[in-house]
Write a structure and sequence with these properties.
Blueprint: H1 11-19, H2 28-41, H3 46-59, H4 65-68, H5 73-80, H6 89-109, H7 112-117, E1 125-126, H8 140-151, H9 159-168, E2 172-173, H10 180-189
Parallel strand pairs: 1-2
Helix pairs in contact: 2-3, 2-6, 2-9, 8-9
Amino acid sequence: MNRCSWCGEDPIYVKYHDDQWGVPVYDDQELFAKLILEGAQAGLSWITILKKQVGYYRAFDGLVPEIMSNYKEEKIQKLIGDTGIVRNKLKIRAAVTNAQAFLIIQKEKGSFSDYLWNFVGNEVITSNLKNKMEVRVTSPESDAMSKDLKKKGFKFVGSTICYAFMQAVGMVNDHFTNCFRYEQIREIER
């Protein structure tokens, strides 16, 4: 079975590739959680975050923005000491700030999902990638998403993070054309 070469043979990566990566996500809560995890990955390998994903959901109360938005300094200090997550103070504080910004967008727009999917015209962008050399790390859409999220108060949402997020939540189908998931995702898109 052909897979995208980036996932290698690590069972955690393979499961993520086969079950989650590139599948369109429309649930506000799930989109928020994935955006937080993508931001936590900045400067690290994605496998690090996959291995700590359970720790993130535990430490951040299920990555529920309504709860996270109310974190006080005592909780933030507890998170900074939690070995189950990436203990970067800026990333932890950004997660709380992002929860607050998420709630504002949700209130203003009615749906975080609608707000985000609007950056891709509410349709999956399907690439025709043959190999890793063709993969890009940003796009005009990720540039626009990053700029607007930052304007709305989000942190750790640079264009590269936004593009990785867009790939992860199926706004962009960047499975290689010879990958068994490429056509499966195309079927989901329709």
